[in-house]
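tokens incoming
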């Protein structure tokens, strides 16, 4: 999947934008138990600061509420990055010359919120954050 995803950065007066481009013809991940996250860190003067984490999901359920896949009859919420879509994530942190931005796009095989409900706590690989793509940007 990593070869079908590009991450770019653009500085603005009030902060910056990270753009995720899904070049695949389908959603970034299609299974409703998967969770994709963009984690962003700012490094300034030797110190690291974790910025907001953006989450992309597809929640399925019944009667407008989340439920397990075998009970679901509808999509309750969907923020997953679609096929051939460019998604922008805006940060209101003003950048300075010399700053470094690190982004990590990755996923969980099973939504951490569902692990316990499914009785899968002992399967550590399911709750591991798997990295799809790392990107680094230097601010001039």
């Amino acid at each position: 999947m990593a070869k079908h995803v590009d991450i770019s950065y653009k500085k603005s007066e009030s902060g910056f934008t990270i753009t995720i481009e899904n070049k695949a013809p389908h959603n970034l991940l299609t299974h409703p138990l998967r969770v994709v996250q963009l984690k962003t860190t700012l490094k300034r003067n030797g110190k690291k600061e974790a910025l907001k984490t953006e989450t992309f999901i597809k929640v399925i359920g019944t009667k407008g509420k989340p439920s397990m896949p075998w009970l679901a009859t509808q999509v309750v919420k969907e923020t997953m990055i679609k096929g051939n879509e460019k998604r922008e994530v805006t940060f209101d942190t003003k950048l300075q010359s010399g700053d470094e931005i690190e982004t990590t796009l990755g996923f969980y095989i099973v939504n951490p919120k569902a692990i316990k409900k499914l009785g899968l706590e002992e399967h550590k690989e399911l709750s591991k954050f798997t990295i799809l793509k790392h990107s680094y940007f230097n601010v001039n």
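note: Residues 34 and 109 are 5 Å apart (CA to CA).
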